[in-house]
Amino acid sequence: MAKFLITASYTAEGLKGLQKDKASGRRDAVRQACESVGGKLECMYYAFGDDDVVIIADLPDNVTASAVSLTASDSKGVVIARSEATKQSRAG
User: How far, in Å, CA of 2 to CA of 9, rounded?
Assistant: First the structure.
């Protein structure tokens, strides 16, 4: 499985949902989305600046990562800025 770095920004509607669901509710939703396609959420951070959320997830491939990103963008609460694959390196 590849690691993906996904950054996103909330829309005004998404920020209202964040207020309602709290951060842990949004993290659970991302975790469930990753697991539903055979992946795993490694970590999720909230940030200030151009990006509101930074996610690192293990996902099967680029197509799956794109599908997860498009599904999130369709919710009209979040705008996915980018999704990039990273290669893991092992020491030794």
Answer: 23
Q: Is 2-86 a CATH 2.30.110 domain?
A: no
Task: Mention every residue, 6+ apart, whose C-beta is less than 8 A from residue 64.
Answer: 37, 38, 39
71-84: buried (b, 16+ CB within 10 Å) or exposed (e) per residue? ebeeeebbebeebe
Q: Indicate the pTM of the whole model.
A: 0.77
Domain residue ranges of the chain, discontinuous segments joined by +: 2-86
66, burial (CB in 10 Å: exposed 0-12, middle 13-18, buried 19+):
middle
- The string of pLDDT tens digits covering residues 54-77 is 899 999 998 888 888 887 776 667
Q: What whole-number distance in Å separates Cα of residue 21 and Cα of residue 23?
A: 7
